[in-house]
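[step 3/7] fold_predict: job queued, chain A
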Amino acid sequence: MILYPAIDLKNGKCIRLKKGELDQVTFYNDNPVTQASTFCKSGVKWIHMVDIDGAFKGENLNHEIFIRVKNKLKCRIQVGGGIRSVKAVENLVNNKIDRVVIGTLAVKNPKLVKQICKMFPGKIAVGIDSRNGLAAAEGWTKTSEIKTTELAKIYEDAGVAAIIFTDINRDGILKGVNINEILELLNSTSVKVIASGGVSNLRDLEALKNLKKKNLDGAIVGRAIYEKKIDIVQALKLLKDR
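[step 4/7] structure written:
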């Protein structure tokens, strides 16, 4: 399993939200490049970055920071948040971003997302953000009528590099991962799945690892790292990145 430490960006700073609510924001670092460098020096191979401003406004407001991090560090970078056009994807890929996460567009326009997957093979992940089993969009402000497992099936043979599954009700509150819903998703698709939302300690990572599912690619961890509830070196040792 791969550990994906998270950097969420708002106004160019590293933050974490609780359940995706903008009025529940905690600022952790004014310099995302420095934060990313700290992660890389700890031995991680990937960093997960999200443009929170973009997710809510549908505009690409922090992409220059994504690119700056990629240019300065050797880690692979996975980015998302408000990426809703071919042009936005193309700009990121052309600037050597390793993987682009598409969420809202994956709910609203699967046909276009499948085309994007063909245009940029191996570069596209689909973000499936779940609120009570249903896929949410637009910075999690709107919940669709599509079940997360049904949305995953749409992209089964689309050439998606991974599905990033986030349990909104657990995101950023350190209450543990939703093992049952993650397992249901893993059993419903052959696509690689990255789990996100609620990781609070090493026991949560161990519980994911113990699922022993070949398509469980890794886990995204944010607040637990910033608040020193998870040590990156210990987490890497536990997960044994593959």
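[step 5/7] annotate
The mean pLDDT is 91.
The CA atoms of residues 136 and 143 lie 4 Å apart.
exit 0
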